[in-house]
Design a protein that fits this description.
Elements: E1 12-14, H1 20-33, E2 36-44, E3 52-60, H2 70-79, E4 88-89, E5 94-99, H3 104-120
Parallel strand pairs: 1-2
Antiparallel strand pairs: 2-3, 3-5, 4-5
């Protein structure tokens, strides 16, 4: 079991809620650390309800290859409630997945898990607690 990575950039940014400078910082630091970075877009579910979905997009920083063990990542995302047919992990280091509910603190935990898995090939032994993560 590895200790958690300490990174100098925000792992997850919410579309429409960050500045270009914050995004540049995220990308530049991810490149330095050879780590992935993520954004999430919160969108209406198009079924006429007030519910919203979350489109997660991740990218492995330039020069760091692609996401490791894509089957394990897909299984993890499905287990955590992502819609299976929306999960796509490309060979050039991009990840796309949609969660059917708006729950931003949970998405922060998911991204934390994905970054740890990318670094060490194991899931972080930390349970999800709503109050541990920002709702922004």
């Amino acid at each position: 079991m590895h200790d958690e990575l300490v990174l100098t950039y925000p792992l997850l940014l919410v579309e429409g809620r960050f500045t270009p400078e914050t995004r540049d910082h995220q990308i530049n630091e991810a490149i330095k650390d050879h780590s992935p970075f993520f954004t999430v877009e919160i969108v209406p579910d198009k079924r006429g309800t007030d519910q919203k979905m979350m489109h997660l997009q991740g990218e492995v920083a330039m020069g760091a290859g692609s996401f490791r063990d894509q089957d394990a990542i897909k299984a993890f995302l499905i287990e955590k409630g992502f819609t299976p047919e929306t999960i796509s992990i490309t060979r050039d280091g991009n990840l796309y997945a949609t969660h059917p509910r708006e729950h931003l603190p949970y998405m922060h935990w998911i991204v934390r898990q994905l970054v740890h898995f990318q670094a060490f090939g194991e899931w972080l032994a930390v349970n999800y607690w709503y109050s541990d993560y920002p709702d922004k």
